[in-house]
Amino acid sequence: MQRSKSLALLFLVSALVVGYAIGFAADRASVRDRLAPRWDPRAMRAELHAALGLSDAQRAVVDSILDRRNERIKALLAPVQPQVDAVKDSARVQIRLRLTPEQQEKYDEIVQQLKSK
Fold first, then answer.
1. Would the pTM count as exceeding 0.85?
2. What percent of the chain lies above the pLDDT cut of 70?
3. DSSP helix/strand/coil, 98
4. Tell me: the pLDDT tens digits for 44-55?
């Protein structure tokens, strides 16, 4: 009886941690578009390398760690990505409806640039 309670508690805690990680990653992905539309991962890495004064060997290790992190986040987001995209698209439609035709053209260009990245 005690073992099943422990397993249930472990499952619950694991589910909470995974849910938090997915929610956090989804939030960061959606907020990034609004706060830093010109976000460039290569530039961010170069900035980190320069700020820390990393050697070539350290850069390779840090880059591989960041690559693994990005792949894990991508895997976590995969199941909810269609929902995140739907929320973004809905907000974009609502914004577009409140713009003048000239503003809509400019907004469409901005959205297209974001989607191409």
1. no
2. 87
3. coil
4. 899 999 999 999
User: Would residue 100 count as lying in a domain?
Assistant: no
Side chain identity, residue 23: G
CA–CA gap between residue 103 and residue 99 (Å, rounded): 6
The total number of structural domains in the chain stands at 1
Average pLDDT over residues 56-80: 94
In a domain, 62, yes or no: yes
CA distance 21 to 26: 8
pLDDT tens figures, 74-92 = 999 999 999 999 999 999 9
| Residues, the chain | 117
Q: Specify if 30 maps to a domain.
A: no
Structural domain including 71 reads: 40-77
Residue 71: inside a domain, yes or no?
Answer: yes
Contact assessment for residue 21 and residue 75, using Cβ atoms and an 8 Å cutoff: no
Query: Quick one: DSSP state of residue 40?
Result: -
